[in-house]
Amino acid sequence: MPLVNTKEMFEKAYKGGYAIGAFNVSDMEVVQGITEACKELKSPVILQVSAGARKYAKPVYLKHLVQAAIEDTDVPIVLHLDHGDSFELCKDCIDSGFTSVMIDGSHLTYEENVALTKKVVEYAHAHTPYVTVEGELGQLAGIEDDVSVSESDANFTDPNQVYDFVTRTGVDSLAIAIGTSHGAYKFKPGQTPHLRFDILEKVSEKLPGFPIVLHGASSVVQEYVEIINRFGGKMPDAIGIPEDLLRKAATMAVCKINIDSDLRLAVTAAVRKHLVEHPDHFDPRQYLGDGRAYVKEIVKHKIINVLGSNDKI
Ligand code: G3H
Ligand code: 13P
Ligand code: ZN
What we know:
By secondary structure, this protein is α/β, with parallel strands linked by helices. The protein has 12 helices and 8 strands. Strand 1, helix 2 and strand 2 (about 45-50) form a beta-alpha-beta unit. Mean pLDDT is about 95; it is low at about 145-150. 1,3-dihydroxyacetonephosphate binds near residues 218, 258 and 261.
C-alpha cells in the first residue's frame, strides 16, 4: 500500500464520529510501536515529523522508516509535516514524498497567514498525487508563555474568521485553539482542565463537514509521570487534557488529534524503570525495546479509548 493523504481518511472519520491519531516520530522504536498498535487494531494513522525531528534523524532516515512501516504492517499511513514554518520547508517535504503538510502561520498577522498558507496550498494541490494541507488559526499557549491556556482567551480561534480563511486559502483541514497546549504542563495544579467546546461548535457551524485538528492533545498519562518520578525523574505537576474531553472532541468535527508528549513520557518511563531495575544492562535493545512496548501499549489505549479509530481499515 502506498502512503495516502488525509482526504479520504478525514471524510470517513468525520462521518464516523472518530478521529485519526497523529503521532510524532523521530526514531525507529516509536515508529514500530505506533504502527504495530495500528496493525493489531486495524486503525489508519498519521505519522508526523517536525522540523526538529528532521534535524535529529535526517529526512532520508525518517522517510525510509515510514516506508518500512508500510511494508511491514500494510496500515494506511499519512506522512505529514508538523508545524511547517516556511514555504521552502513545505516544498522540500512535498518534493520528497510527504503526502500531507502543515503550514503554521498562526504567529503571523491574519493577512500574512492567509497569503503564506495559500501559497503552500497552491503548490501542494498542483502536485501529483495531491498533497493535503493543514492550516492554523488561533494560537496555542505554550509553556514558554508562562500563562495557562485558560487564561489566554485572546488567542483562541475566532469562529468569525474560519470561513474566510478556509475559502481564501483552500486548506484541507484547520487546526484551532480551544484550550489545548503543547508539552507536559497544560494546566496549573488545582485548575479544572477544560476545552472551549462552544468555540468548536461555532467553527463547525461555519464550516459544516470540514475536518478540524487539535494540537497539544496529549493526556500526560499519570501512570507514566508516576513511574518517571519513582525512578529518578522530576516532573512535578505535569498535567494534560483529560481523555473524556478528547473523546468528545473526536465525536464532533475534530478528525485529527496530535499526540507527541505522551509517547515521550512512555519511552522515558520505560527506560528509567528498566535501567534502575537492571543496573547491569548496557544493550540499548533491552531498554529501548521496553520503550517500544510502552509506546505500543499507549497507542492501543488511545485508539480504543480516545480516538475511536479501531476497525476502520
Ligand atoms: O508540536 C510540537 C511537537 O511536539 C514536536 O516537537 O519540535 O520538539 O520535535 P519538536
Ligand atoms: P502534545 O505536546 O500535547 O503531545 O502535542 C503534540 C502536537 O501538537 C504536535 O504538533
Ligand atoms: Zn502541534
